[in-house]
Amino acid sequence: MNEKQLKIQNEIDKLKQVDFSSLEQSHGFMADGIVGGFKSAIHKMHYTFVKQILLGILSGIIIGFGYVACLIAMLGLPEHWAGFGNVMLGIFFPGCIILITFLGGGLYTSHVVATIPMFKKTVYVSDYLKGIFGVMLGNFAGTLIFVMIFAMAGGLDMKINDIGIFEKAYDMGLHKLYRFESSKTFSAVVLSVLAALTSGILCNIMVSATLPLTSSSKHPVGALFVIIFPITFFAMSGYQHGPANTFFFWSMIVSNIFPPEMGENSILHNEPQILDVVYFFFINLIPTFIGNWIGGAIFLPGLLHLINKEYTDVFFKKARLEFLEEKMTRITTKLNNKANKSTKTSK
């Protein structure tokens, strides 16, 4: 046993002396939820990079379906009910998260819950980065796939009350630029980036809550019911969700390739411009993803961890023990294979 193995074994021996019996008991919805949420987040980091991308693609496609349904519902409202647009988002968008939860898709916004477990050394840093960036790439790819297929399936010509679906998506994308939409000044850039960042934080405080919430209930119907509320709150409030906003990103690109007809009832003031897409990427998407990370990686999980520290600390010790045992097995297997190879070579 080399020095590295000896060090790992010593830590394993110490951790084996810890009493983990408290984890076998129920401590209420909050404690059980955050422990289960961390456990689920750690499990997600074990997937291969390809699987992370595929899970992200699945979720991105579901988001596309959800947003088209939301846009149709919003455009179908009478003119004097226009203020109910966000209510439509609050009603329909939770369906996306429910489908993703029960189908097993992956969202960047929930994957980042693995951040604290990574800091607690229960997940390889490489696995963590592979997980969150793999699923992020998949989310981008998923919404792209949906937007392309939807456009070819007649989405480019689909209109509700004489307003096109892509036209409405473009308009919503522009509104997500905040002050920069109407004022192209440096102060507008700063304020708009800050708005997207902080809105992203608020969004993922709610969205990341779905992981501990689904873990707090052993009954699938109960889990389905409770996750509706945080998604409804964020969707109705208009907070920025990075993976969901990629739908608008690709829709704006498609609208630049196939510009919508600017009729009398058009809600766009100007023809689509490729610069709008660039602005959206840098002023909305990047700050939103960073904000989502802060809200879902640090803020909510960190708060719940501190509140339930007596249970989460025990959980992290157990998770660390399992991590080290797996690591020791890997090292031993690698050394044995190396030794066998050397033996064969010498013969």
Automatic annotation (TrEMBL):
Transmembrane segments: 53-75, 87-108, 128-153, 186-209, 221-239, 277-300
Record has Membrane as a keyword: yes
Entry superkingdom: Bacteria
Gene Ontology BP term (one): nitrite transport
A GO cellular component entry from the record: plasma membrane
Membrane topology of the entry: Multi-pass membrane protein
Entry annotated with the keyword rRNA-binding: no
Cellular localization per UniProt: Membrane
Gene Ontology molecular function: high-affinity secondary active nitrite transmembrane transporter activity
PANTHER family documented for this protein: FORMATE TRANSPORTER-RELATED, FORMATE_NITRATE FAMILY TRANSPORTER (EUROFUNG)
Family: Belongs to the FNT transporter (TC 1.A.16) family.
Protein name as catalogued: Formate/nitrite transporter
Higher taxonomy: Bacteria, Bacillati, Mycoplasmatota, Mollicutes, Entomoplasmatales
Gene name, Swiss-Prot/TrEMBL: focA
